[in-house]
Specification:
465 residues; alpha+beta; Alpha-Beta Plaits; 8-stranded antiparallel sheet
């Protein structure tokens, strides 16, 4: 009862800022907007959702929320996998999906200026039609938004060669907690003035500000890629092949691993003709000239030396895209088997063999089905815990197994997340990765930029006890 009157005042102010149809309080709509794809988490009860279409509207909404001390949970397409867009009690869900304009594609400066609601694939297509190339391509590229990609510092299949979203971001427009508008970065090739605020906000998961515009780095379009698939009878052999590929001087644009559990899930669903007896497959792609033939020759030799039992090379673009479709089907294929907890850990490339061995041991010890796939070329794997629906004990076993995996990753010199973010799922372990001084510095930045603690509260940084 004590919140009822303040909430009514806030909603009244909210409806004066936006047209009625862009302020939503209906319970079914709020429920749909209150979670991302992290099935393990239960969202709080949101007060309202707002759908701004401009930076000015976001700033006005943020000033209103600051005045009323209402928490704000920024939201993109909702494809996140760490709970970063999970609603908290009494919050305003701030959906950026109607801010979906590609403002500019500049062929001379090789930049694109976009709003956060632009879908990754939409931008990639528009850029390609201009003869250019936007490298970041998370597996959810067809449905994930650029704003969400920026918020989590998303990677994707091509990050082994081109880096994650931060490497493709030149500048940002950000609305801060109090409604002030900050512009960071530049559109010049070089620029090192002051602190790198652009890098700070990319990957901050909506806890420091709301990204309303981004200036992104483009590249000239590479040649059409070629693709290779190698099958192994041992998962460690497949992991070892990646080291041989690097040592051979090859730098494929994609280097992905899929384990037996995931192969069988994909094949049972898609019937692509994958070898279901293989312990693992590697998929490599090269976007060097002549369909990557010379580079893929090096990859093929390295795979054979590591124990590959079969190597398939695409003969045309159709076959090449078919092989890539197998990789992109990995998560949805596992999701057909039950509730999933998709992990996102990364280790130094020299410790990938240790990581895949640890995953197999953890699966056996906790009686869990774990399908492992991911960007093995840069040490970033996605062990995915599958919990059969109707198994009441599965969630608790998965939570214990995931905790063990995360701690093992840190012991191997790795990181808790390679591209999905910390969100709610991993915040309790962040201090173990950053150290006490690193955690203290992070809290100081949060306090300086969001002194009221209203921006995506509870995400990334656990409440200070």
């Amino acid at each position: 009862m004590t919140r009822q009157l303040p909430d009514r005042r806030f909603l009244g102010d909210l409806r004066r800022l936006l047209p009625q149809e862009r302020v939503v309080t209906a319970a079914p709509t709020l429920a749909a907007l209150s979670r991302d794809q992290t099935e393990m988490l239960e969202p709080g009860s949101a007060l309202a959702a707002a759908f701004p279409v401009s930076t000015e509207e976001v700033a006005a909404l943020q000033r209103c929320a600051s005045e009323h001390r209402v928490p704000v949970v920024p939201r993109g397409a909702g494809t996140g996998l760490a709970g970063g867009a999970t609603a908290v009690d009494g919050c305003l869900i701030l959906s950026l999906m109607r801010m979906d304009r590609i403002i500019e594609i500049d062929r001379e400066d090789l930049v694109a200026v976009v709003q956060p609601g632009v879908i990754n694939a939409t931008l990639a297509g528009a850029v390609a039609r201009a003869g250019l190339f936007y490298p970041p391509d998370p597996s959810s590229f067809e449905i994930s938004s650029i704003g969400g990609n920026l918020a989590t510092n998303a990677g994707g299949l091509r990050c082994v060669k081109y880096g994650v979203t931060r490497e493709a971001t030149l500048g940002l427009e950000i609305v801060l907690a109090d409604g002030a508008v900050l512009r960071t970065g530049h559109r010049s090739v070089k620029g090192v003035a002051g602190y790198d605020l652009t890098a700070l906000f990319v990957g901050s998961e909506g806890t420091l500000g709301v990204i309303t515009e981004a200036t992104l780095r483009l590249r000239t379009a590479p040649p059409p890629p070629g693709t290779l698939l190698a099958s192994f009878r041992s998962l460690p052999y497949a992991a070892q092949a990646t080291a041989r590929i690097t040592a051979a001087g090859a730098a494929p644009s994609v280097l992905e691993l899929i384990d037996r559990t995931t192969i069988r899930a994909i094949e049972d669903w898609q019937h692509l003709g994958l070898d279901t007896n293989a312990a693992a497959i590697l998929i490599a792609r090269s976007d060097t000239p002549d369909y990557g033939r010379s580079e893929l020759d090096l990859v093929a030799v390295a795979c054979r030396e590591a124990g590959a039992v079969d190597i398939l090379r695409a003969t045309d673009e159709f076959e090449s895209e078919g092989l890539m479709a197998a990789r992109r089907a990995a998560l949805p294929a596992l999701e057909r088997l039950g509730m999933t907890l998709l992990e996102d850990v990364a280790v130094p490339r020299g410790r990938v063999v240790d990581l895949v061995a640890a995953v197999e041991e953890i699966a056996e010890r906790h009686a869990m089905t774990i399908g492992t796939f991911g960007h093995v070329g840069d040490g970033n794997l996605h062990p995915t815990f599958v919990m059969p629906r109707g198994d009441p004990d599965a969630r608790s076993r998965a939570a214990l197994a995931a905790e063990e995996l995360l701690r093992t990753t840190l012991d191997l010199g790795g990181t808790l997340t390679g591209e999905h973010g910390i969100g709610l799922l991993k915040r309790h372990l962040l201090g173990e990765e950053l150290g006490s001084v690193g955690l203290q510095a992070s809290r100081a930045i949060k306090q300086a930029l969001d002194p009221l603690g209203i921006l995506n509260p509870g995400k990334v940084l656990a409440p200070d006890s």
